[in-house]
Design goal:
The structure is a single chain. It is built from twelve helices and five strands. The chain is mainly alpha-helical and 362 residues long. The protein has two domains: 2-40 and 76-100 and 110-328, no CATH class; 47-74, no CATH class. The strands form two sheets. It has a three-stranded antiparallel beta sheet with strand order 1-3-2, with no helix packed on it. The protein is globular. The chain starts with a helix and ends in a 5-residue tail after the last helix.
């Protein structure tokens, strides 16, 4: 039994020992090691760009400013952004190649292979159950953008669960590979870019569909005709714009906080092994078993959260866009709403009309 525990400990140790290669685990706190696990790390020693942006002695690490210079590095999160984009393009090129056109009508389009059919099903769900109930006839016009943000976030979240750096370290023995990989959406900068994209989409689609005048008037529900109401209208106008900015900011913060927190919890969980091993080797083995079981359960939960966060970001983006085109008019081309449709609230007045209930009522 002791030999089995040693084998398990030796298997997991190479992946964990790289949490901070510069200092031994025993000399650092659990909090520092957990934070180091999720922070971005430069993959090279010298900056690719060094641009003066402030006075000498000015340091602002969140923006990469040191001694008045902006220093640009390729970080693990930036690398993973490129990796995810490449995998995403290759995946859907393959999926598109599996669609065969044979015959006529809808039956002509047949998707071959379960892998391609899986992504086809996910695309259909996002289009029919998330986008169409909110955007109506505008769905097919803007669904490419909706699909793009959903699958990019999903791929970033899921691929980030793979310990690429620790696999490289275990294979090469080089601790500098330990920080290769990571979750791109665990970086606030990327999430801000995604949120800015949603903000631009709201403005662009809103102005394009309803016109600039109607779109900007939408932020003042009172209107500009009554001069006496400007005292209320102007503050409301400012608050509505602030609300839009806050909504997009929350998109970025929610995704960032959730993805970073999940990795922090798993890292802190795993690093308990080293804390326990400092006091007793037997205790370390016992904690290791509990951490492995708990880590597997947490990883399953993380996979669910990866899908959930991609869905939430996409759904809220669609919802915000739908409010921007609220004055676009009837999205149903004048047809009577179906009271049984999941896209509309049931209309009891239509349900009890005799012509809808059949000849027996007549």
């Amino acid at each position: 039994m002791k030999g089995v525990l040693k084998a398990m400990f030796s298997l997991i140790k190479p992946f964990l020992a790289a949490a901070q290669p510069s200092q031994p685990v025993a000399e650092r706190s659990l909090t520092e090691l957990a934070k180091d696990h999720v922070l971005p790390h430069a993959l090279h020693s010298d900056p690719l760009l060094r641009i003066p942006v402030a006075g000498s002695g000015t340091d602002f690490p969140p923006l990469g400013i040191y001694d008045g210079y902006y220093e640009f590095y390729i970080t693990n999160h930036l690398m993973m952004t490129g990796v995810v984009a490449t995998i995403l393009v290759l995946t859907f090129l393959y999926v598109a190649s599996r669609v065969r056109v044979r015959g006529e009508g809808l039956a002509a389009y047949q998707t071959k292979g379960r892998f391609a059919q899986l992504f086809e099903t996910m695309c259909s769900f996002i289009r029919d159950e998330v986008t169409r109930p909110n955007l109506g006839e505008l769905t097919d016009k803007y669904i490419p953008y909706i699909w793009t943000i959903f699958f990019f976030i999903l791929f970033s979240n899921v691929i980030g669960l793979i310990p690429i750096g620790y696999f490289l370290q275990a294979g090469t023995g080089n601790v500098h590979f330990s920080h290769w990989g990571g979750t791109a959406t665990g970086n606030l900068a990327l999430n801000v870019v995604l949120a800015v994209g949603s903000f631009i989409a709201i403005l662009f689609i809103g102005i394009r569909e309803v016109g600039a005048k109607a779109f900007f008037s939408h932020f003042n529900p009172i209107g500009w005709d009554d001069k006496k109401m400007l005292v209320i209208g102007l503050p409301l106008y400012v608050l509505e714009w602030m609300g839009l900015f806050i909504k997009c900011t929350v998109l970025a913060m929610r995704l960032f906080g959730t993805m970073m927190a999940g990795h922090l919890v798993i890292a802190a969980f795993v690093l308990l092994i080293f804390t326990a091993a400092k006091h007793s080797l037997t205790l370390g083995y016992g904690v290791e078993i509990a951490v492995i079981i708990g880590g597997m359960m947490l990883t399953m939960l993380e996979i669910f959260i990866c899908f959930l966060q991609a869905f939430i970001f996409t759904f809220l983006t669609v919802l915000f866009i739908s409010t921007a085109v609220a004055h676009h008019g009837d999205h149903h081309d004048g047809h009577e709403d179906d009271p049984f449709s999941d896209e509309r609230q049931m209309d009891l007045d239509k349900l009890i009309r005799p012509e809808r209930l059949g000849p027996l009522v007549r």
